[in-house]
Amino acid sequence: MPLLMKPPTHQPVLLSEALEALKAASGGLYIDATVGPGGHAAAILQSSSPDGRLLGLDADPEAIATASLNLTPYQSRFILRNGNFSRLGAVAASLGLGEAQGILFDLGLSSLQLESAGRGFSFQKDAPLDMRFGPSQTTTAAQIVNTHPEEELARLLREYGEEPRARAIARHLVRQRPFQTTLELAAAVAQVAPQGHLHPATRTFQALRIAVNGELDSLKEALPQAVALLAPGGRLVTIAYHSLEDRIIKEFLRQESRDCICPPGVIPCRCGHKATLALISKKVIKPSLAEALSNPRSRSARLRVAQRL
Ligand SMILES: C[S@@+](CC[C@H](N)C(=O)[O-])C[C@H]1O[C@@H](n2cnc3c(N)ncnc32)[C@H](O)[C@@H]1O
């Protein structure tokens, strides 16, 4: 293949840990709910040779196109679909795939999306304020930042960005708007948020991206669907990159690994809830120092594993 046509690459995070957690083996069906450019997916297909199968899903059609190139060596063993994992159950049912032995969620953004000119995910590259994973989503970051009332903008920065200066930033943005580009927005945030070890616009960009893509709601919707798709003994593996996602996963796993979820003091049990999962990793699995040094994107990664009962 000529050098210019080489497909772009992304360094998969916690790769050996995710493979170990999934226990990918020949004959199994695996679902990568966030296939991205296909880094984890290729390793799952390799580990499940000669006949493991994989469904790869991604909300970003560009990611699906890249994965399709990167997974070419496994041609007959994978199916890719462009769609939100909040519809995981419906997508799997429409393909008639049956129960899965492992499902992976590697959340957030790939380096390719972050580095891609024109997507608007990075505060270090000038681009229109878009931040949508795909064209099917109608609201862009520009629409949110340029039209939301100040109070609503502050709430969003506080809840989705965990931004301590949410009110001050929202007030300043409302005075300075409209904004067209990422660099204009990042510069305005930097005028009111102090420079720390993070770029002052980090939390604002995270908040806008989560709001644009409805990321937390999608995750809450997807997790029970994933459990329903797993065969007994099948593994659910998640990698989260910020505390909001990790908290949702932790709470879901805690609830699904308990037989009763009645409020404290309710005896006898009234909820009738039965555990569907056993926790495999009681603690989160974090990247090694070597991985954190070689791939700074991995530093905030938190992997959790559970097994379908
Ligand atoms: C960290 S990347 C995955 C990288 C991949 N594991 C690899 O090693 O190549 C996360 C991917 O999840 C996708 N994504 C995020 N939220 C999604 C959602 N709600 N539904 C489907 N895909 C989503 C993003 O578009 C992105 O491509």
Task: Describe this entry's structure for a reader.
The protein is an alpha/beta fold. It folds into two domains: 3-106 and 215-308, Rossmann fold (3-Layer(aba) Sandwich), CATH 3.40.50.150; 121-213, Putative methyltransferase TM0872, insert domain (DNA polymerase, domain 1, Orthogonal Bundle), CATH 1.10.150.170. The chain has helices at 15-22, 39-47, 61-70, 88-95, 111-115, 141-147, 150-161, 166-176, 182-192, 202-213, 215-229, 243-256, 289-294, and strands at 29-32, 53-58, 78-82, 100-106, 230-240, 277-279, 302-308. α2 (39-47) links the parallel β1 (29-32) and β2 (53-58). The longest helix has 15 residues, at 215-229. The model has no long low-confidence stretch (mean pLDDT 94). Bound molecules: S-adenosylmethionine (SAM). The site of S-adenosylmethionine (SAM) has 23 residues, from α2, β2 and α11.
Name the descriptors:
single chain, 309 residues, alpha/beta, Rossmann fold, DNA polymerase, domain 1, seven-stranded mixed beta sheet, globular, binds S-adenosylmethionine
